Amino acid sequence: MKGCEIVVDALLREKVEVVFGYPGGSVMDIFDALYEAPIRFILTRHEQAAAHAADGYARASGRAGVCIATSGPGATNLVTGIATAAMDSIPLVALTGQVSTPMIGNDAFQEADIVGITRPITKHNYLVNRVEDLPRILKEAFVIATTGRPGPVLIDLPKDILRAETSVPYPSTVKLRGYKPTYEGHPQQIKRAASEISKAKRPVMYVGGGAIISGADKEVAALAVKGGIPVTTTLMGLGAFPETHALSLGMLGMHGTVYANYAIAEADLIIAIGARFDDRVTGRLSTFAPQARIIHVDIDPTSVHKNVKVDVPIVGDVKQVLRELVKLVKQCDDAAWIAKIEEWKRKHPLSYSRKGGGLKPQFVIEKLRELTGGDAIIATDVGQHQMWAGQYCKVVKPRTFLTSGGLGTMGYGFPAGLGAQAAFPKRLVVVISGDGSFQMNIQELSTAVNCDLPVKVLILNNHYLGMVRQWQQLFYRKRYSATCLARNMMCPAICNGTAGKCPPYIPDFVKVAEAYGAAGMRVKTEGEVVPALRDAFKTRKPVVVDFEVAHEENVFPMVPAGASVTEMIEGVELV
Amino acid sequence: MIYFQDGYREMKHTISVLVENKFGVLARIAGLFSGRGYNIDSLSVAETIDPTVSRMTIVAHGDDRVIEQITKQLNKLVDVIKVQEYAEGDSLERELVLAKVHTGAQTRSEVMQIVSIFRGKIVDVGHEFVTVELTGTEDKVEAMLGLLKPFGIREVVRTGTIAIARK
């Protein structure tokens, strides 16, 4: 077989159903081999979107996402998508073309050292030097991407390798002496954890994306219920424990609930599960959970002791470890602790004011949640709308909330939603976006329409790069530098939104949607929200709904960067 | 041991890493250190008796948490087969140094004496300099270089430390 045929054969053997990508000179042989292969190919309009779509496919389905790009600019355009996947531990196999081996290093046309460029943002990567190595490398790539702590793997494929012949067969197993992920937790450590839990008076489970990757939602619930332990999740962990459950504290951290952050501050035991003590979660480290002993379950040893000192580390697969741990934990119910949390919940619920400034973005998300009942797959972009989505979506199932947590990539949501829709053609996929983020991959409307991926894009349009504007308002004396998206050359040099006579907002998202052959709607008042959403969900094609929302609404509660999690700014409107 | 002005000290650690003998592995390791802000004091690489495996000896400094992270991050690389961290006394450590020392007719014998105290060798002699070869621990090398410094050292080339476990 030729190299390019080995690639397609490997995709078939790995049961890849969908591939996202963009062709170009050095990958033409792969595309030729794909032409009649029983694999759905989705042509995005930008390579970055191909990587995000493969990522969204992987997050929604739990299987490796595959994307293809050509050498040079095609490959470098994948970089943001690969880094996004790496930060959130998403299994991705990225195939890039490369100039022929004799030309490598000569600054040939469309040559880039993509293996060098992506070394720090992949779990592993390869440049294929000999066609004989290709079957083994392809197999290794799928194994490495999907096992242990998953992550992106890139294979760089020189054009002459893709055209060369070999009879080396596709291996069924891999031999990697330097790669042995630990799945089983140490029994002694699990015993220690169980005894810590039985001694604790004020325990909290802090659950991250690792629980979703591991498929451990049932085990998380079992531990919470048996031990009577309240559960807070990170942004990445949304869906690992139903937010409608009485023990749920919702999201913690910078924009988490007051009661989740209070619970962490008062806890005497934190059970961290597939989470990595990110700075957006912990706030100032020295004041994070000051009274608590810490149990940390994670498959990646480098996550343990990285940011906080852990009392009981357990390296292993979350699902396997929790299954053993649940057996050892005694039935328990700390009435005093639960009562305290209930009181915090009553005193400090998530809230916003429906008055002032127009339609409130939180209201839109609440209505979306009511209409879909938590059944839709939600993909978000990055910024204020992402945090409101995290707060108000009340996620109940794993793999239904797709968001760029680690890297915080604007432009992620729409292509990720397309990937999720490709994985589940019959399910409702809703993208919650902002007017800034959506414009970063707006060209994918073509992909959505042409490939019949009828995602519903809800733009919470406040005419601003809202999260940056919020920080400017709170920490930069309301100096709105470069955050107003309506601003043009006619505006006064200094403007903090009060000058009036603002220029019309461009683009007109309704017309843009229509120009691409999608449906466009505009919503300005509360009364229009539910009918518009109903309409959008009934429409058999992609829909963009432009919600004109309050321009200067802020995300609260908020823990300022570097502050202690108990130093929250609550829902007060600051001037 | 590295001492800072405020009394804070960081231990030097010798880390011995077995890696796949493939191109790009050195870049992965070097990139890991630079990308995560760890300091390398020295690094030496060569093939082992198994031609598919290379050994890297890395000397780095940092507090315990940093060194723990370095070892774990190294282990996480797919091309890394084994990581051993040697505590002081666990390993034999050697470094090779070549130094060109300025000498005239008057000072040559004095330089030769110093070198012989350290069981070094003079491997080249010229009118204005001698080239000295010495193997030893880093401390020994530093001590000899310190004594030779007043004569004027034109050039020093050091291999960096290599280490082998005692047991």
How is this structure best described in words?
The complex is a heterodimer of chains A (about 575) and B (about 170). Chain A is an alpha/beta fold and about 575 residues long. Chain A has three domains: about 160 residues, Thiamin diphosphate (ThDP)-binding fold, Pyr/PP domains (Rossmann fold); about 160 residues, 3-Layer(aba) Sandwich (Rossmann fold); about 190 residues, Rossmann fold. Helix content of chain A is about 35%, strand content about 15%. In chain A, the strands form three sheets. A six-stranded parallel beta sheet of chain A has the order 2-1-3-4-6-5, with helices on both faces. In chain A, strands 9-8-7-10-11-12 form a six-stranded parallel beta sheet, sandwiched between helices. In chain A, strands 14-13-15-16-18-17 form a six-stranded parallel beta sheet, sandwiched between helices. The longest helix of chain A has 15 residues. Chain A is globular. The relative contact order of chain A is 0.11. The model of chain A has no long low-confidence stretch (mean pLDDT about 95). Chain B is an alpha+beta fold. Chain B contains four helices and ten strands. In chain B, strands 1, 2, 3, 4 and 5 form a five-stranded antiparallel beta sheet that branches. In chain B, strands 6, 7, 8, 9 and 10 form a five-stranded antiparallel beta sheet that branches. At the A-B interface, loops of A face α1 and α2 of B.
Q: Rg of chain B to the nearest angstrom?
A: 19 Å
What would the principal axes of the Cα set say about the shape of chain B?
elongated
Structural class of chain B: alpha+beta
Please give the largest β-sheet of chain A: 6 strands, parallel
Distance between the termini of chain B: 24 Å
- The quaternary structure here is heterodimer
Helical residues, percent of chain B: 25-40%
Distance between the termini of chain A: 68 Å
Q: Stretches of chain B where pLDDT falls below 50 for ≥5 residues?
A: none
Count of individual helical segments of chain A:
22
CATH superfamily of the largest domain in chain A: Thiamin diphosphate (ThDP)-binding fold, Pyr/PP domains
Strand content of the residues of chain A, in percent? 15-25%
Total helix count of chain B? 4
- Structural domain count of chain A: 3
